[in-house]
Fold these 4 entries.
Entry 1:
Amino acid sequence: MSVLLRSFSTAAATAVAVSTFSSPSSSSALSVAALLISCRSLRSLEQIHARIIRKGLEQHPVIATRFLSFCAAFSAPAYASSAFDRLSAPNLIVWNALLAAHARHSPLPTTVALFNLLRRRCSLPPDAFTFPSLLSSCSHSVALSLGSSVHATILRCGLEADVFVRTALIDFYGKCRELRAARSLFDEMPKRNVVTWNAMIDGYVKSGDLVTARQIFDKMPERNAVSYTSLIDGYAKAGDLASARVLFEQLPERDVFSWSAMISGYAQNGQPGAALKIFLEMYNQNIKPDEFVVVGLMSACSQLGSLTLAKWVDLYVTRSSIDLSKAHVLAASIDMNSKCGNMERAASLFESMPNKDLISYCSLMQGYSLHGAGDKAMGLFRQMLEEGLMPDSITFTVVLAACSRAGLVEEGRQCFDLMTNEHLIVPSPDHYACMVDLLGRAGRLTEAYELIRSMPVEPHAGAWGALLGACRIHGDISLGETIARKLFEIEPTNAGNYVLLSNIYAVADRWADVSELRTLMRGKGIRKVPGFTWI
DNA sequence: ATAGGGTTAG
């Protein structure tokens, strides 16, 4: 009965609207309106648009509104504007639909300009449908002062009590970390819905107050997937995967957002195995992944370094409907293939990029470096400079590490000079560690020692460790002892340093020293880490 | 016709 009534009233509303603009035929308007509802892509929207024009229905307010909201759905704000500009007398509803299309997909200034145009051109003042879009645009840009002036306008229009407007305001203040403003608006609200509560949770999560976010979550009368996922995401970002997991297990209906929150949460916290397990659970439930899930999966796979897995993931993504040309998916894929040793694939993905960026260059260079092709890494570095890209501090870390692994002493030195003299980058402890490693491996132990002692910043254990490793390779006992003594001070419990010195003694047949060192270790309660060998 | 959730990578 209610369905019948509703469809009747929709038809009636259409008829009224049609009569106000004198349509050629109300039945064609109805059929086009029905066609619009079933529209599934931008291409089919374009076809329907042609039909709208052909049938003379372009000025029909209901058709125009529906058309504009489909432009919003397919992220086509420019298309919405071009159609809107041909309307002779758009009413407030049509204006609101245009504003919504832009609020979701255009930069804030464009949306604000449109709002000002609406105020000047539309015969009616903005209503409760106007402000939520405008505010959401302010929220996404975290434009506190602009949004506050919108709030003032809302008060002048007497619209602050509207649930949609008020929820949008709460969301806005929450996103701007103005939790006190959000809270006063929230506490004095007579009727809230689940979106209102979720806006508060999101605000507290974003400002890092997980305790209050949890209190809101526990207090709310009904929850949906968004309530859970916001909190899961907050816990995951704070590294509390245990709490995230408990909520995830409690969530009755998981959507792709909740799955990706867990997968990327584990991946980002260095638990690639757990990330993979969650993904497999999702996969076995035949849930379609999206690009966020896939990026998390690839990140986990990079950390595991398994070529077999990387090949499977690659094939899986190729067969899915995920757009591999999207920048972050591509970056994750290049990184995964590089780290897992599929350099051909990494290189071909890299070549497919129209605009190669610093990060993709670095991913590929690191891959070559890791797999013993330092010369290829250096070739890429030269190509990068020729392309006019500006290397940053991390780029040089990758490049210097590549030189060090490949024993390219001269190139490494040149790069260090290039970094400091031309790019004016202050060398970090990491850069020094690379240089010490580079010189040390090449047997220039004295030079390396001089470098480490002349560092203007405090060298970290990695630099000393690299030098101690070099002393072992080149059998320098006296320097080795000096460096080891330094390292025992900096990191007294790292067994690796004791093992290295012990190996130096062993190679020189100084077994008494080996034995003494072992006693020293036992005395300090240090146990050797599996994987290190005593000769 | 309107408000809510997610990867800054090397």
Entry 2:
Amino acid sequence: MTIEEQSKDEILSEIFKALSEPNRLKMIRTLNESDKEITCGEMSEILKLSLSTVSYHAKTLREMGLTNTRKEAQTKYLSVNRQTFKKYLPGFLDSL
Amino acid sequence: MTIEEQSKDEILSEIFKALSEPNRLKMIRTLNESDKEITCGEMSEILKLSLSTVSYHAKTLREMGLTNTRKEAQTKYLSVNRQTFKKYLPGFLDSL
DNA sequence: TTATTACTTCGATAGTTATAAAACTAATGA
DNA sequence: TCATTAGTTTTATAACTATCGAAGTAATAA
């Protein structure tokens, strides 16, 4: 295994850890299937989770580069970051 | 989300959990890159982990259907289960 | 300024997990 | 039978994580 592969394993396993939590995977599926951005409050209603829990998961997904965040006034709009998936899990979003 | 997708999410998140542990991901990479089966003892040397820890991880991977196990006398030979990857993460092994 | 909205962070808790040593099991061989 | 080999399970521990309520922050509106 090369040095590059070692760090790729680390990045990949962190991405997998982010996706291993069922509610986070649901968030990705929801964002992937949506034709528009979704706010944290909307996600809270869709997943029947408290806003603080959604915020916690959203932070994890954002920090792993799996989602984009656009802030407009107090509202945060979430969307899936297709580039990251394309780079590390090509084809995954299409198979989801 | 349909009922089928719900259970697919659960299976997928369990697969991701299995792959989110760096040593298990290394085991999959090692098996994927090998042209022959690998024993638990060999894996223990390759990953510098105790045999009990390798056995513990091997069990997780086997139970998720990510590896095959072939027993010959006392020895267990591990290999990657390509069908499971093809079904749930098509293209992943090639991109690994 | 005060209130409201939308989200984040803190704090506490309950549950999960990775690790290895020790004990155990099963197969082979002397 | 006894010893060796290969792997599993048990046990204990230390570390991590998901959850939510409460408190905090920042932007807007009255």
Entry 3:
Amino acid sequence: MGVSLRDIALRAGVSVATVSNVVNGYRPVAAATKVRVQEAIDEMGYSPNLSARHLRRGRTGFIALAIPELNNPYFAELADVAIAEAARHGYTVLLDSTNGERERELEVVHGLRAQIVDGLIFSPAQLGPSDLSDRRDSVPLVLVGERIHDVAYDHISIDNIAASRVAVEHLASLGRRRIAFVGAQDSDRQPAGLRLQGYTEGVHAAGLTVDPRLVVRTPGFDRADGADGVAPLLRGSDPPDAVFAYNDLIAVGVMRKAYELGLRVPDDLAVVGFDDINEARFTTPSLTTIAPDKDVIGKLAVTALVSRLEGEDNVPREYEVPFRLVVRESTVGAALPEEEPGA
Amino acid sequence: MGVSLRDIALRAGVSVATVSNVVNGYRPVAAATKVRVQEAIDEMGYSPNLSARHLRRGRTGFIALAIPELNNPYFAELADVAIAEAARHGYTVLLDSTNGERERELEVVHGLRAQIVDGLIFSPAQLGPSDLSDRRDSVPLVLVGERIHDVAYDHISIDNIAASRVAVEHLASLGRRRIAFVGAQDSDRQPAGLRLQGYTEGVHAAGLTVDPRLVVRTPGFDRADGADGVAPLLRGSDPPDAVFAYNDLIAVGVMRKAYELGLRVPDDLAVVGFDDINEARFTTPSLTTIAPDKDVIGKLAVTALVSRLEGEDNVPREYEVPFRLVVRESTVGAALPEEEPGA
DNA sequence: AGGGCTATCAATAACGTTATAGATGCGCCT
DNA sequence: AGGCGCATCTATAACGTTATTGATAGCCCT
């Protein structure tokens, strides 16, 4: 193996304890010996064996970040923020993709990585409160992107219902009357259920009624799901004049399908997404969407977990992160200031 | 802490060594005791302490994957493949974002994670052969997405020059005469330099000459860089009739800027990208692009590293992964079969 | 001058695992 | 009967680190 504390100690003529103290600064070391040890370290190219350190310290400095999939830009962008923030706190992130599968999510929550991480940040796609209640507390858990009530964990969330309502009201305020929702799920699991509920509330608030034929369930949340899901609606008689999509990827698929069918966005079909992924600014037309503050979400998730790991406080907290409606061309057409403040 | 081997040993009335053998199957254990030990494990909920295991074994089962940034869908998609493939081999991936900064890349290559990973997969954006030659070999290294000659490491690459040439020849074959390249870099570092070279060769092969004003350098490789970079060209006199972009993100930015300026793609401006990110299939118009086989690249990178870690063979290998030109609407307009085989 | 305090360092016991060497019992062969 | 091999298991020494305890020397104070 490589150079160990013991090698440095021999070289510098001190004990391993002293070398350790020089490395960690845990206890004071005389300036002269500190220099001598440091020289030995530099000459021999020592760096501490992390496995040994982790074993001895009882903590690893790893935290797991479990997300549905990296292929979804929203989660990739979120992971990017979280990884950077974790590094600022001296932690290293282990990514786990659940593929949005219930089975994999259960594994993650019940300690798939329990023996190697100090804590877990989890963005659920399928799991509800009941799945979390029987968790034997292996490592501290922070929930993200999701409002799960009555569960004794920290969670970072936005108000999915309110945000969805704002999106639909925006469409209604533009005179749209047949507003579809694309991206519902078979189960009313979170958060798809919440956005559907917000959609319903928004439709009612606009004095309209929900036409069940305008609520489209999709197998997944990708662009192809949006395109395939909306196609029958657009081809059918009595098509919608607006779509609120579960997320931006589905919205992109919807716009793509509209384009293929010769429909103009927003003239024939207005589209609103959810997430404000980078891509949304550059689609043609650019995409009106709900923008959760990803930067805040990612940082908050990490800091909440870190303070849970390092603090003494033990009471679970809820953090509600604000969102904005970012109005772009897919609802109001071109020639408008790029962004305007929302709710 | 949690339950240890010792706890299980006491409960089952055997030695820790026997429990270890039951867990690892390293040495045979009598069926009866094996059952007894397994019961104790199940009852007490034991799982091995990985830090201790890593320390004792001298390997961690971690591999680092260093990429420029997760925000770039190409790398997110590649990481997704690599993570899954690594898991299949019993390895866990640690992601490191270099932001394409030379300094960070040097850190990665010279052992930032050396004390915790068994091996390293590195996708360079700035580093060249000379930066790698003075590497004191801490952990095995596999290079990805890049053809660096005369360096004693495995590398997985596609022929960037040939691919770029194919892209340009495709544009030329459609009658385009003023073909721009967007996404050149100040330094002729890899791989931007290679694609620029392929562009040059392609232009010459078509019997045209390279107009330096049509070669646009950009500060980065994102959508905004493409939009900002191409804007002066499109607004100027004697604009290009085609763009070959360094990557798909830049191509998307170019198409966006064309849209803003009222230019039609492909009629006024044909666009070819590079990477074939998922997004490219759903832009309006959809994006013609060079498609490296990401699936093969990601899997090959992992298997190459794993066989280097576990095999005895020690001779560095080159793997050249094929690419295809995927022709879509951004060069030939609508109503064409979605994909056709390329080079 | 002696006792106590501070500053500095050393010795060493863990942390939980795996690998090596050795112990035990049993059957079988000569 | 005695010894040998096999199957099974135990005892224990590492792996490299950190935290605890203890030792030593120098200094100040009464």
Entry 4:
Amino acid sequence: MKEQVTSLIISAIQSLQKEGVLPDDCKYTVRLDRTKDKSHGDLASNIALALAKSAGKNPRQLAQLISDKLPESSLVSKAEIAGPGFLNFFLNSASQFAVIEKIIQEKNQFGLSDIGKGKKVQVEFVSANPTGPLHVGHGRGAAYGATVANLLAATGFDVCREYYVNDAGRQMNILATSVWLRYLELLKVDITFPSNGYQGEYVKDIAQSMHEKMGDTFLKPADAIFNQVPADLSVDASGQESGDKEAHIDGLIENARTLLGQENYQILFNAGLNSILDDIREDLKGFGVEYQEWFSERSLADDDSIDLAVKQLQKSGHIYEQNGALWFRSTAFGDDKDRVVVRDNGQSTYFASDIAYHMNKFNRGFEKVINVWGADHHGYVTRVKAALSALEIDSDKLEVRLVQFAILYRGTERVQMSTRSGSFVTLRQLREEVGNDAARFFYVLRKSEQHMDFDLDLAKSQSKDNPVYYVQYAHARICRVLEKLTEQGKVWDTEQGLKSLELLITDRERDLSKKLAQYPEIIEKAALQHEPHILAHYLKDLAADFHTYYNASKMLIDDDALRNARLSLSIAAKQVLNNGLLLLGVSAPDSM
RNA sequence: GCGCCUGUAGCUCAACUGGAUAGAGCAACAGCCUUCUAAGCCGUAGGUUGCAGGUUCAAGUCCUGCCAGGCGCACCA
């Protein structure tokens, strides 16, 4: 509908160009917006304001000229000039209700489009280190990434949802060693658990199952375990600190490796990794988040991708050596300092893996790559983009979305989260407490870069204050009406309903229908801008329009034609609510 | 100190990427249940968009400088 009105404007401008009123070469894009104010009609364009300068006319004058040249159309009942020179279009009522039939025909296809034209897009999200369960911060990234991916798929992009598994590196060694030490505790070895080890209960669980499976295979005496290990951090009675927690844990890792041998160490390492990764997979799946690809960081070392990436940078002269390490000259691409890619001990850094990983992404042919990262990683954006530029990959093809943290509240009380003690609030706890639907909806209710307050009490409450219930309730209400219809021994006569749409004459009916017609544009906008909150807010508004309508007009009335017309409108609303909620990963219940 | 993000009604947030009189929901006040779920609906009130300049027909939105909050500045991942 928008396109058709836009083409009217374009043809008016073209005829003005022919007459020499407007220069032939003037550049313009016709913008046509939905109006906020009903007195401004249904659609408005600022074209006369934008072209006033190149036409050498004042905006209102130009608007009049354009208006005079507008071709006749059955859609538009009138076009008028208003304010500083806006062109306001009023649609006739038949075209306003046409959307109802379209929705009823297209069902769950309504709102889908092919503007993505099958372009390959990757959305990488969550990608939390497999060193412990997902917490509520990851939940926001999960809900955001999954919804963006759904939106892109709905608009015709070829989407790959990917999780980057950090299955290499020091943190994983700390996990493996933590598991081993907990295992040793089960065997009554007298040890003090390191302050920098993973403290969570889940580590003990992994140790327990390791013990059940392997018996005392990994048993070593305490003095060997702590042999030559620097003292751990400790604080004495006067508050004086001594020792070094980092050196302490590194010493323990070293001893674990030598005492256990490569093979046994690897068994422990994999036990920790697999157990936690399985848990993460299961957690995300339960949250309605599915991936096409779980990409292993370790695989990049195993297949020499990292070496290859470094060599390629070397070849193009972006690498230099200093103090025995290899540095990438990222300052040449706007970074504030150069970065090490291979350490003086010959080990490549995490950043080197990241370069190889991003090279790999673009080698797979993605035309657009979206990384969803926690806001604390924003420092990495510049250097990763620098690496892409150095590899002669267009860094604009990479879009990094930084998701801010969510702060949990119970009413007005802030919920403290401490990672230290291992007693953080996990995503699973959140899901159990408020339910998947509320969690998914709340997480995407805010723009991604907005700090967010997540009120647990509100998410659980069954009232209109809670936007999830509010939207779901609208859907359930319509289902209930249909149930009631059946109880009355009647059926919805689709054909009669669609033929009788002109009986829908109230403002509320027109408002609701207008809202429904907006849905495809909303999906498109939310998808292209990668902003799910646009959809969430829209569904809230749609639900509000429906509740208003429901309260004002009774549907199950004796007048067959009007009843079927109203049912058609409501069923269209139900369909759109259903389609929108599906994209958000939220259920559309038949009853509540 | 440098960099990124944020600052909009008492609170939580929008505002179609520069458009018309800045909008919702809570909370406050005032109404609506012999009616398909009152898990809802309808009003009223609430603003110098952190501050100060600038750009233009037009600025919450763009540029500059301040102020406040968050996050980051490793041969860790």
